[in-house]
């Protein structure tokens, strides 16, 4: 029998970046907040022995247990979806801080074009440029309206970056909090080659601190050691910004924040118009509890936010057949696969050292920064060279034609370990009418609840983008003075393996039309005014960038909206 708890003003579901930011902002403003995290608690002490590649990178110590809850996947509605039983395409974080603990720290604001992609594409190329089944739309907010919230995230997390950025990126009102990271020899080769070709490279803005930093909340953190253990690992120095070392301490010190770990939320309680609270299960004891609340905030990962709405029958599920409904609409991923490698037989680089966001990139072929008139795709990719720290177990570099096992394979990986520099493109993913999330009718989690089902595949738009961007990466690699270069310019059918990107987006998209979006531009739900949903699930498409900067900015926007709602109630737009 469920245990009904005393009512609270605000309950937050998920304590990663979004939950941490909103909790910090609301408690600083004097509000009492309860935060529910289904995983365990975490502090920097848990990272002290984190340089264990087998445990964390290969065996996924920080990730969700897929034997208890996973996702099912299919390319189209014509095939049966099957569960992801072992990690491949993306990684689902678990525990306090969520994916904000195991990210790399690469920080990019989405482009102004991204937020008005539908209208700007038609304005330049006409409506026929957009394929019939490509469901791009304006986000209901502009870059300029969101700019001040980017600043808040950057100052809180201590983003390290150049004092000046190229003109083809959105304007900044305030410089990054700290200077850029160091320039490695590989970065210099990429930068010099790109500049000679007339492009506009810059050092990647980084959530790995370039120097010691104290943020506006008084949180002190040490600078990056360039150890190369960022992605899939926590940072024992606190140099990589994550919720555990930035926003959550602020909320916890306020005296107005109650954190409950091992609290797996299974539903949102509501009367059809407003939420009345949430129900959750203690993952250690199995005890079910009901937490009444005045305001419910969904701050989970993409799949979690969408699944909770569908399980709770809150909002109208998306139906691709009729193109109606909103919950689950506009799922998008990331289009990787365009890359070239520069092979150096006459020199070696220290590629074991690095940082998650150490690198240089350019945006000459991102967004609408180049003419698409004669191209069979829209948007583009951020092109980059990164030196994230190549660890010995997972890094096995070989060139085309090398045997996949045996003596020759081993010799090639050893020889190539410090001789290959990769130039890659991270491409935007456009939504499609038949790409969406819903509940699987067959497979269930360990509690007997339906799993979330993902329907997605790469389309001609993606293949054309990869082919085009790959040629640009090879152009740069050829200019970098290598002995030889090798290009990768094709992608085929999407599969749940191998690892590609954890950048899943969409499903609770924002917009100005309640019929086709789930939330308004304050991330307030159209169908329940006291429910706020925030995260990459709000994205109407995915850009050529990592999503965290935009997730963070939207979280600050949502916190402001929640405060406004507490004062006056009703719809905020």
Automatic annotation (TrEMBL):
Keywords: FAD, Flavoprotein, Oxidoreductase. Coiled coil: none annotated. SUPFAM superfamilies: FAD-linked reductases, C-terminal domain (SSF54373), FAD/NAD(P)-binding domain (SSF51905). It comes from the Bacteria. The keyword Lipoprotein does not apply. Gene3D superfamilies: FAD/NAD(P)-binding domain. Pfam families: GMC_oxred_C. Residues 440-555 form the Glucose-methanol-choline oxidoreductase C-terminal domain. Transmembrane segments: none annotated. One of its GO terms (molecular function) is oxidoreductase activity, acting on CH-OH group of donors. Belongs to the GMC oxidoreductase family. This is GMC family oxidoreductase. It comes from Cohnella terricola.
